[in-house]
Amino acid sequence: MEVILLADVKNVGKKNQTVNVSDGYANNFLLKRKLAVPVSKKSVEILENQQENARIAEENAKKEAQELAKRLETITLEFTAKVGKDSKLFGSISLKQVEEEMKAKYGITIDKRKFLDKGPLDTLGLFKLRIELHKGVIGEIRVHISGKE
Question: CA–CA separation, 102 vs 87, rounded Å?
């Protein structure tokens, strides 16, 4: 029996894949647990519509990420930190602080796990942090750390 899988099934196939399985397995396991639907003209049409909608949503997400990347290029976040002798920073500026500052000043919410440049910023100066906004779309933001005694 030919069925369209609604979810990944181990040793059978991936979601949205059309596979040929035995009638008993299809009726007693896949269909009963709503892991698959039988192949028909209507089910194939629904599958194609879902795949097209998913493709369009993916394109829109990528366009939004590219627009956000352009916007991030113009942003420079300013941080002031305490310094001691020889312009050594007390502590550091974390990615969490960068994330919170972006949200507070510009209303941009980016998860700190999306930053490609890990690690705290623990010296004075200008830094460029890369952020993966979407698969294949990388934005860059500048962070300037100045000192106060």
Answer: 26
Q: Using alpha carbons, list the distances in angstroms from residue 121 to 1, 62, 79, 135, 142.
A: 59, 29, 10, 25, 12
CA distances from 140 to 36, 49, 70, 127, 145 (A): 43, 36, 9, 10, 16
Q: Looking at residue 112, what DSSP letter applies?
A: G
Q: Domain of 19: which CATH number?
A: 3.40.5.10
List, for residues 99-134, the tens digit of each pLDDT value: 999 999 999 898 888 889 887 788 888 989 999 999
| Residue whose entry in the numeric block shows the structure tokens 């698959």 | 36
pTM above 0.90, yes or no: no
Other beta carbons within 10 angstroms of residue 51's beta carbon come to 11
Give the CATH number for residue 108: 3.10.430.100
Please name which of 95, 29, 65, 101 lies closest in space to residue 5, comparing C-alpha atoms: 29
Residues 42-83 have pLDDT tens digits of 998 998 999 999 999 999 999 999 999 999 999 899 988 888
Domain end among 11, 31, 64 = 64
Same structural domain, 74 and 121: yes
Residues 96, 37 share a domain = no
